[in-house]
Design goal:
The protein is α/β, with parallel strands linked by helices and 321 residues long. It contains 11 helices and 9 strands. Helix 3 packs across helix 11. It starts with a helix and ends with a helix.
């Protein structure tokens, strides 16, 4: 849409006639779909669906990530005018991307939530689209992985986080944001030998064969080393990328439930996401943005940037195959 046309259009999230192109609207007004993409439940011809999961009932400490999807969408309005920096292709003009809205669930029926979310993602995948999910606490990745593993088989996982989330928990009915990758490995959703965790700076006794790059290793050996190792681990296998915003140091992302010092700088995360271009990414998420703990909004801005980079990784994987 040309800038002069925007003078006569409002809320292109509702009024645009195609899913591609920029949105030249005031960043401080209008509908807050992600990157001003079309709000729709129609998956016909869609390449990629952005969806929100405002769930935070699995946390071990501070709630608030139920407000994450809304905050990330609002922050993304600043990015809807321009192509992504440093990428040779432009998903906003070359992919049919929609905002599929949030998963609908009964907050008082927590036990029903996992199956509801799996069905939500399964519907997107069955339509031939991929998904980028805005969380929500990190437990949501487990029901999402179930839908992806149904389609692709055991996945490689690239997991950015301060925590491994591999603590033992053999009760599949427990809903906990610190044990879901233990369950994902044990139930065969994730291939540990082809998976890697980046930014870890808490203690886990058994990593179940998952490869680990600690935050200190990354700081000392550099982002290029970390990316090369991650690429070697996942190879060409179907890969899901999950980014817990607490992978970033609290100085860069204070709005999260379980902050840990010594984390990634925002430039390190940006460099690694960009340099992972070419992995066989089939989906991803950004989780644990908790706006109540960050009145500046900088954590939601970081989350929006991560989600945009995940879109670019997904697009690059499609264009190179």
């Amino acid at each position: 849409m040309a800038l002069e046309d925007a003078k006569h259009e409002i809320d292109t999230a509702f009024t645009r006639t195609q899913h591609r192109g920029y949105a030249f609207e005031n960043a401080f007004a209008g509908a807050t779909s992600f990157l001003r993409r079309t709000y729709t439940k129609d998956l016909t011809g869609v390449n990629l669906a952005i969806t929100g999961v405002p769930f935070d009932q699995a946390v071990t400490h501070r709630t608030g990530t139920r407000f994450g999807p809304r905050a990330i969408r609002e922050a993304s309005s600043l990015m809807a005018f321009d192509p992504p920096t440093g990428w040779p292709t432009n998903p906003l003009e070359e992919l049919d991307i929609i905002d599929y809205g949030d998963v609908a669930f009964d907050y008082a029926m927590v036990s029903d939530f996992p199956a509801t979310l799996t069905a939500h993602i399964r519907k997107i995948l069955d339509a031939g689209a991929g998904s980028i999910t805005l969380g929500g606490d990190h437990y949501i990745t487990f029901p999402i992985l179930r839908a992806y593993a149904e389609k692709f088989g055991p996945l490689s996982l690239i997991h950015f986080d301060a925590h491994s989330d591999l603590w033992p928990d053999d009760d599949l009915t427990r809903i906990d944001h610190g044990t879901m990758f233990y369950k994902a490995v044990k139930t065969g959703l994730v291939d540990p030998k082809r998976s890697v965790q980046i930014g870890i700076r808490t203690t886990t006794e058994d990593y179940l064969g998952v490869n680990v790059i600690t935050a200190r290793e990354l700081h000392e050996k550099g982002t290029a080393w970390a990316v090369a190792r991650a690429r070697d681990i996942v190879g060409d296998h179907q890969t899901y990328v999950t980014f817990d915003i607490d992978a970033l140091d609290p100085a860069f992302a204070p709005g999260t439930g379980t902050p840990v010092w010594g984390g990634l700088a925002s430039w390190q995360a940006a460099a690694m996401l960009r340099d992972l271009a070419g992995i066989n990414m089939v989906g991803g998420d950004v989780v644990e943005v908790s706006p109540p703990y960050d009145p500046t909004g900088v954590t939601a801005i970081a989350g929006a940037h991560v989600a945009y980079e995940l879109i670019c990784l997904y697009h690059w994987a499609r264009t190179q195959r």
